[in-house]
Model the fold of this input.
Amino acid sequence: MSAFQKETVLSVRHWTDSLFSFTATRDPGFRFLNGQFAMIGLEVEGKPLMRAYSMASANHEEALEFFSIKVQDGPLTSRLQKIREGDIILVGRKATGTLITGNLIPGKRLLLLSTGTGLAPFASLIKDPDVYENYETIVLAHGCRQVSELAYGEHLVNGLRNHEFFGPLIRDKLVYYPTVTREPFKNRGRITDLIASNQLFDDIGQSGLDIETDRIMLCGSPAMLEELPAMFAARGFVEGNHSQPGHFVIEKAFVER
Done:
């Protein structure tokens, strides 16, 4: 257990019957870059049961926040969804992940493309003042099946827009684009299709993909993480990593279990 820190659950909020978020105490020694993930979980029968979770909180915040799916027969999430204030969770001592701005070549527009709980690392990044210093525009796209599944993201963005410090900072820079696939909504369709057709950019009144100015981060469904990188590569975009920055980066380590 020495690889994990015990933290206390501070709050739990159930957004739908399949999505919830929670906050927990943060050890003063736990450091991370916005966009990274850590192993978190529960002690089950004396052993740690862990999965990778992106921090939805920013690295300047005192508490940790996580955004999770509920899987009724999932080894971890079937238990994690039942946590309450005061319960103990385990948090790995080391954070890692590719969704950090240092893995991108400098650019002017940052596209944060997510589906489902893949929104979590971007919840962290859009609370980072440096992101607004480094980019002229940040586009946060969040794709879900149903309108109700957008609630966490809408709450997050509205909170930032009304925040004393972040409100003025993001007002002219952060563009939030929620879209759904299975219900009527102002934005309809898969993010992959909306980018391929240029509909997403038309809807927000901006120009289409430009390799000279656009930098992209991806976190979400396996289908999106397969289709979009292929699309970007066909247009000359190069994937970045810790050793070689590129035009886009991908994170696959988010919980589906």
